[in-house]
Every structure is written in C-alpha cells, then in structure tokens.
Design goal:
The structure is a single chain. By secondary structure, the chain is an alpha/beta fold. Helices cover 37% and strands 18% of the residues. It contains 15 helices and 14 strands. It has a seven-stranded mixed sheet, sandwiched between helices. A five-stranded mixed sheet has the order 9-11-10-13-14, sandwiched between helices. Strand 6, helix 9 and strand 7 form a beta-alpha-beta unit. It is globular, with a radius of gyration of 21 Å. About 8% of the residues have low confidence.
C-alpha cells in the first residue's frame, strides 16, 4: 500500500492561529503553488461558429443543444433548477421549462433509479450527481440495474439513453468529501461507459456523444477546470468519439497517459522532460476510461518502450493498474524499463496536505527521470 510521505504528515499549522486569517508565509505559498498547472487552450475540433466558454459553460451549451433538439430530454438532480452549485444548468429551466429541468430530493440512489426508469420508457435522461464523492449511494443502481438492463432482458429493454454527470477530482480545497476521483470503480462494470474530458471543447463533444450513445454513460467533469479552462467552443452540436484515446504530443522516448486534469499536468511534464532531460515524451489523453483504447496506448509504448500512467485516484486498484497490466501483456518485449504509476496515495484525500497527495508535475517528472536512467 502506498502511504502518504512522512514529510507530509509532519507538516502542521501553527497552533492558536486561525489559518484562514493568517497571511501565508513564502514556504506555505510555495507548497500551495506546487499543485499549480497552466491550462493550454486547444483549437475547436470542428469548423463553424464558436464562442468563448469555460468548461462549465461548454457543459451548459451541450445540455442546451440536447434540450433544443430532443423533446424527450430531461435534466434532473439536486439544485439543477436554479443552475446547480457549479452553474452548469443555469438558465435552462427558464428557457426550456421547469418540467424538463427540475430538482430532486437529496437522494442519489433515487436520482439514478429515476433516470433508469425514464430511459427505459424511451426518453433521454440526464442525471446530475452534485459531487462524484456522493455517487456511492447510487452504486447499486448503476452496477446492478443500469449496466445489466439490456443483458438480462435479452436485448428487449435497455436504459441506454441515461447519462449521469458528476463533478470530480481535486480542486485545491475540497478535502476528503469533495475531491475524489471514483472512475476506477465504474471501469470494472461491463455495460457502462465512463468518460472524463480534459477541457471545454472536449467536454461538450464527449458529453453530447454520451447523451446520444446507446449505452448508459457516466461523465465525470474535473471541477478544477470548470472556470480555469477557457477555449473557443463550437456553438452548434457536435460529438467526439467514445472509446478512442487521443495522442496530443508525439514523442519517441516515454509514453505518458492521463485523463481529465492530469492531462494538463502531463503537458508541463513533457516540456520539463525535454528541457532538463532531453527526453521526447508522447502524451495520450485516454478520454474514455471504459472501454479504454488499448490499441492507441500499446502502439505508443511499442514505439517508446516506456510508460507512465498518472491519475489523482489512489494507486491501489486505480485504473493505472489495469492499463499497466494490459500493456505488459501486449508490449513486454518492447519495454525498456518497468511501467510506472504516479497516482494519489492510499489515504483519504487530505485538505492541507493536498500538494503532497496529488500526482503533480514534479512527481511525474521524477518518474520520467527514473525511466530514462533505468
């Protein structure tokens, strides 16, 4: 089990001082900035009119496109009628009617169970779980109902028109109940797609693809990118392929694989590795966690001979383990070094120790250095 380093555990705030009111010391500011990354905007993936949007606005745009073109579509969840805690559904109830965008009781199991019923009846159901950390009460509905509905009925019935949205991942101050990345739990479930976007353009295209897909989908939105990631996003509806990874930076020495926020971290690692090590890194955004794109990853590793997989979730049982095992099976004779996983530690997600917990660019860079020197 990979535990939090002792250095992180020994760090403590000075007693008798309110940390919310005390001015940050240079050391504290350095620690806080250690988790920083710079978002790199991307070009629109399709031609046409665009509008400047951050990630939550691109989600709103996708939802609006769906409500406009699909009269059966409904959106429901905790507080979505007034826009939600992250404002992803702001204005939709006023524009499309409160019977199509409405609040539910605070009951995640009920939200997903209701969504399954709506989808089985033939409508498009878009459920919001307010935080991914609170999706666990709905786990039974996802695992034992949504994922198996088509299979157990022999194809006569399905709930493929169900999409579950949930904000996930580290945000800088979310602590143990507002920072989790639970994608690996659902990657283990056949019959459900699990998707995580890296930015606004990707979020809109992948979310629309999930909504239109014939399988129930879980769409995790990295909440730290809701406002920090801004791009020119196409206004009209478009989709991006599910189950297909994307090579963002081509390289010959090391393959880096991530998804969501971690892709932005790994972009900086590619630059650091080139400047300080002369290493040429290939960066892959997995995008779809399940089913994941084995061919793209294995083709890259067969070329580079080295693989690093990074994610915020704890290392034990994380999706990096599944990727590593598959790559080892298919690319064993091509490997020049052991596969490396740079992930969260096997502890609850900490608050003030978050900079020590997350797989920041320095931990990932150190992994690149070790592989290059192996």
């Amino acid at each position: 089990m990979a535990l939090l380093p002792a250095a992180a555990i020994s760090l403590r705030l000075t007693p008798r001082v309110n940390p919310l009111r005390r001015k940050s010391s240079p050391r504290q500011q350095t620690l806080r900035n250690s988790s920083h990354f710079t978002y790199v905007p991307e070009a629109p993936p399709v031609p046409g009119e665009t509008q400047r949007m951050n990630l939550f606005q691109s989600v709103t745009s996708a939802l609006s496109n769906t409500l406009e073109t699909d009269p059966t579509a409904i959106i429901f969840g905790e507080d979505v009628a007034f826009g939600g805690v992250f404002r992803c559904t702001v204005g939709l109830a006023a524009k499309y009617g409160k019977e199509r965008v409405f609040n539910t009781p605070l009951c995640e199991q009920g939200i997903v169970g209701f969504g399954i019923g709506v989808a089985v009846a033939g409508s498009t159901a878009i459920a919001e779980i307010q935080f991914a950390d609170y999706i666990y009460p709905a786990f039974d509905q996802v695992v034992n109902e949504a994922s198996k509905y088509r299979y157990r009925s022999g194809g006569d019935f399905d709930c493929g028109r169900l999409t579950i949205r949930a904000p996930s991942g580290a945000v800088g101050h979310g602590a143990l109940y507002h920072s989790q990345s639970p994608e690996a739990f659902f990657a283990h479930v056949p019959g459900v797609r699990t998707v995580v976007p890296r930015g606004p353009c990707q979020a809109k295209g992948l979310l629309l693809a999930c909504i239109q897909d014939d399988n129930p989908c879980i769409f995790f939105e990295p909440k730290v990118l809701y406002r920090s990631a801004v791009e020119d996003v196409p206004v009209e509806s478009y989709t991006l392929p599910l189950g297909k990874a994307e090579v963002l930076i081509e390289g010959r020495d090391v393959t880096l694989v991530g998804w969501g926020t971690q892709v932005q971290v790994l972009r900086e690692v590619c630059q650091l590795a080139e400047e300080r090590l002369g290493a040429d890194c290939e960066l892959i955004d997995l995008r779809t966690i399940a089913p994941w794109d084995v061919d793209t990853v294995c083709n890259s590793v067969s070329k580079t001979g080295r693989l690093i997989v990074a994610h915020e979730a704890p290392i034990t049982g994380g999706h990096a383990g599944e990727i590593s095992s598959t790559v080892q099976q298919h690319c064993f004779l091509n490997l020049e070094a052991p596969i490396s996983r740079v992930c969260g530690w096997d502890t609850p997600f900490p608050h003030i120790h978050e900079p020590f917990y997350i797989p920041d660019k320095w931990r990932c860079f150190e992994a690149v250095r070790k592989l290059m020197n192996f």
